[in-house]
Each structure stands twice: as structure tokens, then as C-alpha cells.
Amino acid sequence: MALLWAVVPTACQPLSHPFQPEGKTAAVAGHLEPGPRAGLIVSNRGVLPDRSLHRLSELLAASLRDRNIAATTSIEDRARYQLQGNVELEDGPFAAPEDALTVVIQWKLLDPQGDVAGSVIQEEAVSAMAWRNFDDAIMMPIVGRATPRIERLLDGYGDTSIPPQPLEAVVVYRVDGAPGDGATTLPERMRRALKMRQIPVANSITEDTYVVLGTVHIDDDPTGKQQIVQINWTVIRPDGRRVGSIRQQNSVDAGRLDGAWGTIATAVAYEGADGIVSLLKAIGVDWPNAAANR
User: Structural domain boundaries of the chain?
Assistant: First the structure.
């Protein structure tokens, strides 16, 4: 039975970068990284116990992944962008339980060379009792308010319109979170689908390529017989700014995607490619109808 994958665009206006490093993309291990959305290591330090700082990092990384940002708390053996939080308490830690305390978190974005690319400051009012416990119930609202601000930090600030950059080629960089062979099959099928739409596709990132990133989230439905599959595709400009995202969602039999994705990957890519083309056209990007695929 054919599956229909609804495509929901979530395009955003291009944003300016007041703290952008001189290099629009960072050279890493002989290739170019497409920006912090494609690989972000989250960590925290400060006056909280280490276990609380680590838990705060985990919750924030999960929240960022829900926005199609490839965030993790694991330090891999290669350079990535880093988001470092510094948690400080402005008031005395020995206040009465009912007293309100001010918690200040500075979120700092570092590029792969360790240079500061931008920062934001978040202030939170919590009770002294909440500060002493600082469990998930306290952290989740803080993370919820931090996530959109950090996303803006990654994408840039302001609302100045930026002209589209010429489309030299598109790189389908990777797909995170897919079970089975989805991590390899989905990018391959997406490349094929884009080529069918006369989009020039390249295998490696350069300073002139647009980048497509994919993430997959799978949740079990209440019966346990079906799984809800959500796939997000994000398009990033050559200068690292986000063009926008599309979201696809459908139900499949539980465990269906633990092995080969097969025709499901083809259906996902076919529908998703139309959404990616729409995002590019929405910002005025054009390309030759007979563009050669590299």
C-alpha cells in the first residue's frame, strides 16, 4: 500500500549575523562543515552539581533536536560547534525556601576553532527550594525558554532581508535518528529525487553549496502496534543561515523501519524533494533546467 507523506513547510526569513566569524564555513579535517545546526555539542558548567549540569545539557540537546538541530552531549573525535552554558546564582544559596532567587545562564556559541561566534544571556527566577532540588520539573521550563533563543543564536539575529545566493549545488549532508538502513537509504533517495527535479547535487560541501539535513523521530502509539514517524528536512544557505524546514509525518507498523526502508524511503524522498524545491523558490533561488549533477 502506498504511503502518503504530508509535507509541512516551516520556512523562516534569512537573518543577519552580527557575531559571525570571518570564515562563512569552517574547514575541518579536509572538508567544510555546514554550520552549527549540522553538529552541536552542548555542555554546561557553573554552580550546580555536575549531575545537574549534565542533565540540563541532555534536556537542552533533546529540545534542540526537536527543532532539527543535530545537538548532542557527546564529545566526538572531530571538531564541531559547541554551545557552552555557564550557570550562575546572583543571590545567596542559603536563602529561605520561599525566597526567590535569580539564576543567570550565559549561552556561548563557539566555532570549531574555539572562537566565540555569539552569545545570549538568560535570567530565570526560581525559589530557593527549587534551586536546591533543581530536578527535571525545574529544568524543563528553563530549557523550553532557552531553546528558541539558542536557535536564533545559531541562525543569526535581526530581520534584514538578505538576497538569495546562487545555487551552485545541493549537498544532502546526513540524516540523524533513522533506524535500520535509513541513515544511508534516505540521503541516497533524496539525492536521486532532487536530481529528477533538475537540482544540481554535489557529494561534498564547498563555500557555494546549499546543505540539506534530515532528522527522524519515531514514537510508539498507545496500542504498540503502530509507530508515528516524523521526518524533518532543513535547508541551509552556503553562508550558514537557515532557509527553512519541512516536516513529514505518517504511521507505520511497529518495527517496519528497523531493517530496510525500501519503498518508504522512496516515497519520503519524493514528497520531501518537492518541499525542498518550494523552499528554494520561496527565497528566490533559481537554477538552470539542465544543470549538470556533480
Answer: 6-14+162-282, 39-155
